[in-house]
Amino acid sequence: MTPAELASVVLTAAHAVFEQRGLDRAALPASTVVERPRNPEHGDYASTLALQLSKKVGVPPRELATALADELGRAEGVKSVEIAGPGFLNIRLDAAAAGQLARVIVEAGAEYGRSDRLAGEKINLEFVSANPTGPVHIGGVRWAAVGDALSRLLRATGADVGTEYYFNDAGSQIDRFARSLLAAAKGEPAPEDGYGGAYIAEIATEVQARRPEVRSLDDDAAQEVFRVEGVALMFDEIRSSLRDFGVEFDTYFNEKDLHDRGELDLALNRLRAQGHLYESDGATWLRTTDFGDDKDRVLRKSNGEWTYFAADCAYYLDKRERGFERVVIMLGADHHGYIGRMKAMAACFGDDPERNLEILIGQLVNLLRDGAPMRMSKRAGTVITLEDLVEAIGVDASRYALARYSSDSPIDIDIELWTRATRDNPVYYVQYVAARTAGVARNAAEVGLVPGDADAFRPELLDHEKENELLKALAEFPAVVATAAELREPHRVARYLEESVAASYHRFYDNCRVLPLGDEDVTDLHRARLWLNNATRTVIANGLHLLGVSAPERM
Known about the structure:
By secondary structure, the chain is of the alpha/beta class.
């Protein structure tokens, strides 16, 4: 019995109690939830329904809980119900009802854990969006791992998600990048405000190989060639490195297109129609202070140039015009000040900034070697890059390590820890369970132990304490996925896999032998435990997939 099925049983019992007592059935909720108590001695699941309904119907909570417990105790699959405190219901399932979950999980396969909790929501999820002036640095890599995991979670809960990478191929940073390439081609040091690192010389050489005529152009014309060709080469490299990291985007959006298509003028006119623009000192301003910003923002300077914020406005409007109800943007720690102006901008467009715009801020990441932070990349020369991280600990460990922590917390990634083949390495600890469950299934087949038909499965045999503990851990997966999606917190999945599933499976494996020993005959208990082993493999694989991490069959 899954938690959702038990919750339905609890609600059915409540309907019966209300009918018996002549209580107002309109007070009953459309659905309810059951939760795992922190102390397993309090039962398999707990419900607070009596406490929730008591005031609505004017019945003392313990009296209502007693009536619910009596009715619920007669339900199929419920072993016992105890009343605790002011009216908590502590519920224990019989072994057959609890054990059936193993069959449910195995038969659901990759679908187990998925739901329609966010069905109907159309979400645009923008992450990474590093400017094409250098390789993706470790802060951007964090968003690659977290953003991709979040997109998987949102889709697993029914949302219609479009992932997006926004790249800037205009503006002062690109000019500095082009000047740096030109200097490298001429054998000169990088400009004082330019970019250094071996990658600049590599790109400059490649541009010259593609466009040999650039050597004969004057500096202004040559710089333009380096800008166009250099940006294209750099962005191709960024896309390739992200692809190798397992991250693909539905849309790669070019800021220059906003200018070329006149979308900045469109956004300006829309904001003017909303009554939030004014002119001052020859510039065009957006009155964001009306919606809590600390100061008004310039959209167009007195010399006619657009500001970066004007492009932000146009880009937001473009997303909304494409039908995305919710715009989610992931930004680095240095962008915290953007939240107020962006929220105010959404309000200026007439949107609800709490509903239509969501901004997530990620904190800093340090890569540690021998206990000290690494500061310099061999290739980039200034920052640690995606390639540096992957070279140090691999793709799986990188993605898991970056998604394992709440994104609003700084993290240190210790190379020694994350490459260690021991249980204190979190990704190894979880992947080891994936491999062990696969190994058990292989070894079982070799001795003629197969799960058999679902009809022959005897779940009531799974009555060992450690089997029950593992079943309860597996039952929580759909709720963990839904909560992680709704709260935008992929780390909940990683921690669940480690602390609940992997830990419970290791205790089950140590106490409940799955394979027959020596010449021992294969029994229904062996088969039942094999179902539970395979159910664990399913949950581990599904959870790791949501994080973009592999579930190996061998290690």
